[in-house]
Each structure stands twice: as C-alpha cells, then as structure tokens.
Design goal:
Number of domains: 2
Helix content: 25-40%
Bound molecules: pyridoxal-5'-phosphate
Strand order of the largest sheet: 4-10-9-8-7-5-6
Radius of gyration: 21 Å
CATH topology of the largest domain: Aspartate Aminotransferase, domain 2
C-alpha cells in the first residue's frame, strides 16, 4: 500500500494559507466511525480524531441526527439576546458529568478562547494579575494563550514579546528528567514553590493553569501526587486551580475528566474538543459563587454556545453514556497499551510507552536516550502509507500520540498496531 498520495491527482492548494503545517496532503470526502475516506475512495484508520475531537467516531448517527434536527429548528441564538433550549439541555447533561461542586457554565467556541476566558475569570475573581503554567503546556494560539504555551517555539517565534504575567514551572515528566516519579515530583514542586518566592508572589498570582495529562507537550501522565499538591498550594494561597481538559477531557483517559483519576476538583474546568464530536464548542465550569465574581458584560462572544454545537454536545454526552464509551476507552486503552508494549520489546527506539485510557504515547529515543525526532516523523509518514493516521507531539516532536475514537474496537486496535509495526519495520530498514 506504499505511497498513497502518489496514486491520487493533487488539486490546486495554492489558495490555502501555508500556515497550516501538514505531514501529508489528504483530501477527505467523508468519515464514518474510526475511518476517513479520501476523495480517491481510499480508507484510512483515523487514530488522530482531528486531534482528539471526534471521540464518538466520525459522523455518529445520533450526533448527526441531533445536528440536523437542531439546524432545522434554530441555527443561532446569541447568548446575550436569547437563551436557547439546546444550551439548557447541555447544562442539564453537563451537570451529570462534571465533578461537583462545579455547577455553572460559560460557553465559547475554541479551546484557546475557553482558556483565555478562564484566565479572565481568575483575574476578575481574585484581582490578581499573574498566572503560572507548566513547561511543555499547550493552551492555544491566541495572543494570551500563546504566552501560556511552551510546548514548542514554533508557536511563539516571530510573535514575541508576548503577553506579560505568565510564569512557567516544570511539569513532572519523569522519562525526560530520567528520574523516578517521586524524585521528579519533589523537584517540580520545589521549583514551583521557588517561583512563588522568586518571580510571582502568591498575592499577585491569580491561577495555576495545568493540563492534568500533558497533551501536545508529549502525552505525559504526572505522578499521582502532583494535582493534589497543586490543590493544596492553591488553597493555601487563595490561588485558583484551572484544569485545562481541552485534550484530556470527555472520556479520553477512561474517565469523563482526567482530574477524576486524582480526586482533585479544580476551581475552573476548561473543556473543548471532544465535547461536541467536531462542532466548535468550548466551555468553562466553575462554582456559582466564583462565576458571580465575573461582572456581567465583561466577557462574552457572538457565537459562544451555538445552538447546533450545543445540540451536538447533548447527543455526544448521551451517546457516551448510553454506549459506555468511557468504559470502552479504559478497556481499549489497556489493549492498545499492551500491544504497544509488546511492539516496544522488539523496537528499542520506542523509549517509553505511557498514558491513560485512549490518550497514549510512544516516545522515540536514539541509542543514547536523546529524542529521535526524525524516526518518529518517519514512522508517522510510513503509517500514513499503510493507511493509518497518527500524530506526533512533544517539544522535540519525537512522541507519537495514540488517540483513537472512543468507539474503537479490539479488531481496529489490532489492525492499527499491525500497520504501525509495518511502518516501524519499513523505516528501520532505511
Ligand atoms: C490542552 C489544550 N488546551 C487548549 C488547546 C487549544 O484549543 P483550540 O485549538 O481549540 O484553540 C488545545 C489544542 O490542542 C489543547 O490541547
């Protein structure tokens, strides 16, 4: 199945901005479940999910039906002018899945917009200016979130100086540091506390913003004590804890939200991506008392909480619950993890297999343990030729992330693993 692109005549793409970077050029016509179909009729096993978005699979019939019905009823009802019933239904559904006592919601369109909203809420509520983020985090590409994003210089280079008031602490990434979890955690917490002594005083720090599982920065699950320690520190100093669950939320890790693995409830939970199966929707959840410290009119947007997107989100949550997709993510995650570990035994270039649920990673390192970017990229490219879509991540772009849809079954996982193995063998031969 070598070089799929060569078999397809490429259309003129010169009118699309080159700012969208791509590993391949794939023109798709439709998607169904775990598969995408190109305009040339070829089938691809999609283990990217549009970067962790289509968790219910492509075009889940119930989500499609909800979108169609809502589109025929009301496409748009701006939230300052009307409250549409789709938003109220979504709130009912979200109240069943977000951790208590988070009970009040604000909706926007993209992950970055929601993170910016969370920072604005934290600043407004605390009257403090600064935020702390973690090394390797990805929070978005808008002006403010770009300043909070430290996963790769490509997101910042050429745009500096960036918005002020952002301070960066190390994320506990044991494999990168080469330490055990305990040593890594101790070091990172010590550095965080040093930051509060040396760069941003607690009384000028509004929020600590954290990805409960580091996403674009390398799919890193922090040691168990990390989030509880952040919670404790925040409570001690009156700093708000913001969990950016844009990538890790909505069942991806085998729980509705990754914070649930830790028992920690953030002050603000940021959601997007998987919430609406592909329609643009993001949101914040917080306690009512906190939301009430956000002055009416001081934040908003034309499209936030769009009616069709809300209807898609309602259907997404119902599908996830009724089709047991959270349970499936946990179960299939184990199958995938076991398969990847087995492959790792024959491929020492895979330095580590890690992750939670269906948010897994294979990190490529060379014989001296240094990040092996070219190899990871070559494998993704070869996997594409095998009809398997994968994405890289990590500051060195040497990690392959595994994010199949949560509807994935054992046969599809095994198929994906076989294609991956063939890609590994082919790139190893070069
Ligand atoms: C953890 C996290 N936060 C925020 C964002 C930004 O989301 P968006 O691209 O929808 O603005 C992303 C996107 O990948 C993300 O992974």
């Amino acid at each position: 199945m070598a070089n799929r692109e060569a078999q397809v005549a490429q259309p003129d793409l010169s009118h699309l901005s080159p700012v969208w970077s791509r590993t391949w050029t794939l023109i798709v016509e439709r998607g169904e479940g775990a598969y995408l179909y190109s305009s040339a009729g070829q089938q691809y096993l999609d283990f990217t999910c549009g970067i962790g978005v289509t968790n219910t699979g492509h075009a889940h019939p119930r989500v499609v039906q909800a979108v169609q019905e809502q589109a025929a009823r009301l496409l748009h009802g701006q939230a300052n002018i009307v409250i549409h019933t789709a938003m109220l239904h979504l709130v009912d559904e979200l109240l069943r899945v977000v951790p208590a006592p988070l009970d009040t919601f604000f909706f926007s369109n993209s992950g970055a917009e929601a993170v910016e909203g969370a920072v604005k809420l934290a600043r407004a509520a605390t009257h403090r200016p600064n935020v702390i983020v973690f090394q390797g985090s990805f929070h978005g590409r808008t002006n403010a979130t770009m300043a909070m994003t430290t996963s790769k210089t490509i997101y910042r280079a050429g745009y500096q100086p960036l918005a002020a008031g952002v301070f960066v602490a190390p994320y506990p990434y044991p494999y990168r540091f080469g330490w055990d979890e305990e040593t890594t955690l101790r070091f990172c917490l010590r550095e965080l506390k040093l930051l509060l002594k040396s760069q941003t005083a607690p009384e000028e720090t509004a929020a600590i913003v954290v990805e409960p599982v580091l996403g674009e920065g390398g799919y890193v699950v922090p040691p168990d004590g990390f989030l509880p320690a952040l919670r404790e520190l925040c409570d001690h100093y009156g700093i708000l804890l913001v969990a950016d669950e844009v990538q890790s939320g909505f069942g991806r890790t085998g729980r509705w939200f990754a914070v649930e693995h830790t028992g920690v409830v953030p002050d603000i939970l940021v959601m997007a991506k998987g919430i609406a199966s592909g329609l643009p929707l993001s949101g914040l959840a917080a306690r009512r008392a906190l939301m009430e410290r956000w002055a009416p009119g001081s934040h908003g947007g034309t499209y936030g909480g769009n009616a069709v997107a809300c209807a898609a989100a309602v259907a997404t949550i119902q599908v996830m619950r009724e089709e047991h997709l959270i349970e499936n993510a946990a179960e299939m995650g184990q199958v995938l993890m076991a398969g990847l570990r087995q492959i790792q035994e024959e491929h020492p270039e895979i330095g580590e297999v890690r992750g939670r649920g269906l948010m897994l990673a294979t990190e490529f390192t060379d014989s001296s343990g240094e990040p092996w970017t070219d190899r990871a990229r070559a494998v993704v490219r070869a996997a594409f030729d095998e009809g398997l879509l994968l994405l890289t991540c990590g500051s060195y772009d040497n990690v392959i992330r595994w994010i199949p849809p949560l509807i994935v079954n054992t046969a599809q996982i095994r198929d994906g693993l076989q294609r991956f193995q063939r890609a590994l063998v082919r790139t190893g031969e070069r």
